[in-house]
Design goal:
Elements: E1 15-17, H1 26-34, E2 39-42, H2 51-69, E3 78-83, H3 91-101, E4 105-109, H4 114-121, E5 126-131, H5 134-142, E6 147-151, E7 157-158, H6 164-172, E8 179-182, H7 188-197, E9 201-204, H8 206-209, H9 218-226, E10 232-235, E11 243-246, H10 247-252, H11 296-313, H12 316-319
Parallel strand pairs: 1-9, 2-3, 3-4, 4-5, 5-6, 6-8, 8-9
Antiparallel strand pairs: 7-11, 10-11
Helix pairs in contact: 1-2, 2-3, 7-11
Length: 320
């Protein structure tokens, strides 16, 4: 049994909504948390930087109001994603705002930094670090992360190439702390499968793009609905880091998705000036399960029904 900090315990639906660059906003995060899953967004989505303070105030006040009105069903905690790569010139500012608001969960990406983890631990927050292989996982824990997000093959946006079976198995040989699994999960059955492999949570992103609350163009949402795993292209051209993208958006940008050049990793840039993610749309391979644009509450309700049915199908409900 994994060791989970209090804010991660007792989740009736073990799902974390992945932070979606540009797309996640307070409205989406609030609805995710109210529906009972951990909602998240990148700090960089707040533009200008000063907006982050307002957004965190909005999220905290909305969730507190929900909890007062529904003490029998309190909201899940929320998370903020911090890109800790040297290219993020907002990190110091955004971390100060995160500390001010005592954000309960911080998801760190693209580098593990001791000082970031220490700042979050200083107020009792939890750090989950996303990784694409076992070596990075060990480094993250050595530098003070509390838990890991295993970004396996098929995940949307920046993603690894490891099978989830191999990646989770290798991590669980030495780590018994919080572990989320990312990679083509868009059904309640997939959530249960992640747990069966040894993860505590399923980390779901692409399915939330096709929600009414998501800040994505309608064409993007419809691309998620219409797409399947055959419509996903893996490339490092757009940010310098390999990621999964919707084929249709690459074609619309005038590029041949089957003959994309390689990019220089040193050119990685998250300042918003490049085509990803505004014009080149990230997506995971699990979108074949997404059949319509729906409210976040409806998506979570579907996942919850499917999760319960999957448990019943293998006899878990009778034993729990």
């Amino acid at each position: 049994m994994s060791r989970l900090p209090p804010c991660l315990r007792d989740r009736s639906l073990p799902v974390i909504g992945a932070p979606l660059f540009i797309i996640s906003n307070p409205r989406l995060v609030i609805e995710q948390c109210k529906a009972g899953v951990i909602g998240s967004m990148p700090a960089l989505n707040a533009r200008p930087a000063e907006q982050l303070d307002d957004w965190l105030t909005e999220i905290r006040e909305a969730l507190a109001a929900h909890d007062r009105a529904h003490p029998e069903a309190p909201a899940a905690p929320f998370a903020i994603n911090q890109i800790v790569h040297k290219s993020n010139d907002r990190l110091e500012h955004d971390m100060a705002v995160v500390v001010k608001h005592k954000v309960p969960i911080v998801i760190s990406s693209l580098g593990a930094r001791v000082e970031v983890n220490q700042a979050i631990h200083g107020y009792g927050g939890v750090v989950l670090h996303d990784i694409i292989n076992n070596a990075y996982a060990r480094k993250a824990i050595e530098k003070g992360a509390d838990g890991l997000i295993a970004v396996a093959a098929g995940a949307g946006g920046h993603a690894g190439v490891k099978s989830p079976f191999a990646l989770v198995q290798e991590i669980r040989e030495w780590f018994d702390g919080p572990l989320a699994l990312s990679g083509a999960i868009a059904t309640g059955g997939g959530v249960l499968a992640a747990q069966a492999m040894g993860a505590d949570f399923a980390y779901i992103g692409s399915a939330f793009i096709a929600t009414t609350e998501a800040r994505a163009p309608e064409a993007y949402k419809q691309g998620i609905v219409a797409g399947t795993s055959d419509d996903i292209v893996y490339s490092n051209l757009f940010t310098g880091v390999h990621g999964n993208y919707l084929r249709a958006s690459i074609v619309a940008a005038g590029l041949d998705p089957d003959h994309l050049p390689q990019s220089d990793p040193s050119q990685m840039n998250f300042g918003g000036g490049r085509k990803a993610w505004k014009d080149i749309w990230g997506s995971g391979q699990g979108i074949g399960a997404v059949k319509a644009v729906v409210d976040t509450a409806e998506l979570v309700a579907r996942l919850r029904r499917e999760y319960a049915q999957a448990r019943a199908d293998i006899g878990l409900e009778a034993r729990s």
